[in-house]
Amino acid sequence: MKRIFVRTRSLKEGMKTDQAIVDRMGRILIARGAILDEYLINSLLNMGVTSLYIREGEEDPEEEKISPLAQSVIEKTRINDCAKVRLSESVKKRVSQGIQYLYNNTDSQDFTDAADTIANDLMQAISENDAIAVDIGALKISDEYTFKHSVDVATMAMIVARQHGLNKNQVYEIGVAGLLHDLGKSKIPSEVLNKPARLTDEEFEIMKQHSVYGYNILKEKDGVSDHVRLGVLQHHEKVNGSGYPMGLSADKIHLYAKILSVVDIYDALVTARPYKKAFSQRDAVEMIMSMTNELDLEIMKSFMKSMILYPVDSIVELSNGEKAKVVKNNPGYILRPKVVGIESGKIYDLGKDMKCNNIIIL
């Protein structure tokens, strides 16, 4: 079964809902799994429901195993995820084409305008539903690593920046910095950039220059702020001074670079490359959490509050052997949502209930 988010005005008769519509008292007005007809669609419009989840394709076999008791508990405890950024297929296509243009035409006279257009697309996607979170398993712009990675980093960085309290202009600027943070790789020899194996020490020294190359490209561009340039230059710096290209310590690293560093590392970890397998999202988050001596702690906290690893309605397997359904995410506890056992109906609040401390999601 595929779960998709559809605007109410685009709903068709015969579609099946994948969420319950409830009133302010928590009473179910339209049940999850209801088959939509003209009356229900008009009712949704009249209630001011602008969009909702629907099911497509075959039923998820896990759904059939949910006991009546568990389903009742789930409906009473389920709380929607906070607003997540969503990119339409048309936006994904424009962004994918735009980022490829930028990386292939660094000398273009309309370079800055093209970067602004892409950042505006991302900004609009965030603003449309007041997004303060991102489903980190749902980002996919292009199959080409550099372009996908750049847009993933930009999108996550903008959400983290918003969560961190940055203003609208700063969120926009960090989006531009995220899109362009690897721009300097366009100046790295292809035999190094595309090597299907781990780089030698000498090759890695060459690769490490990409942030400097990116900064130098942007230094010549009118309309690109110094904040964006510094974000690009310093995104591989570490707060303990172990990063590159200058080995800066925490107080010398620009805020944009601190944000880019966290999301850049995360996205690189979860992406498969010819010379390495992708880490699971869970393992990548745990690795980020272990890097307290290298990454800014406050930015890490904002990252954890912004990312949704287990979206509500996901089916997960617990370390006690039970399968459960996610009913609520706990802000700041990305690995430990509230779940309900799909057979027992038992509630496990992994983030807040001390009795659940020894239970993890596998």
Entry keywords:
3-stranded antiparallel beta sheet; alpha+beta; single chain; 2 domains; 362 residues; 14 helices; Molybdopterin biosynthesis moea protein, domain 2; Hypothetical protein af1432
Summarize the structure.
The protein is 42% helix and 11% strand. With 362 residues, it is an alpha+beta fold. The model has no long low-confidence stretch (mean pLDDT 88).
- Just name the CATH architecture of the largest domain: Orthogonal Bundle
* CATH classification class of the largest domain: Mainly Alpha
> Overall pLDDT, averaged?
88
Order of helices and strands: EEEEHEHHHHEHHHHHHHHHEEEEE
- Named CATH topology of the largest domain: Hypothetical protein af1432
Largest beta sheet: strand ordering = 8-9-10-11
How many domains make up the 3D coordinates? Answer: 2
Q: Could you explain how this protein is built, in words?
A:
The protein has 2 domains: 2-59, Molybdopterin biosynthesis moea protein, domain 2 (Alpha-Beta Complex); 89-308, Hypothetical protein af1432 (Orthogonal Bundle), CATH 1.10.3210. The protein has 14 helices and 11 strands. Helix 6 (145-163) packs across helix 12, helix 6 (145-163) packs across helix 14 (297-306) and helix 11 packs across helix 12. It has helices at 38-46, 61-64, 68-77, 89-104, 111-128, 145-163, 168-180, 190-193, 201-207, 210-219, 226-234, 255-269, 281-289, 297-306, and strands at residues 2-7, 16-17, 21-22, 28-30, 51-56, 134-135, 307-308, 315-317, 323-328, 338-341, 347-349. Strands 8-9-10-11 form a 4-stranded antiparallel beta sheet, with helices on one face. The chain is globular, with a radius of gyration of 22 Å.
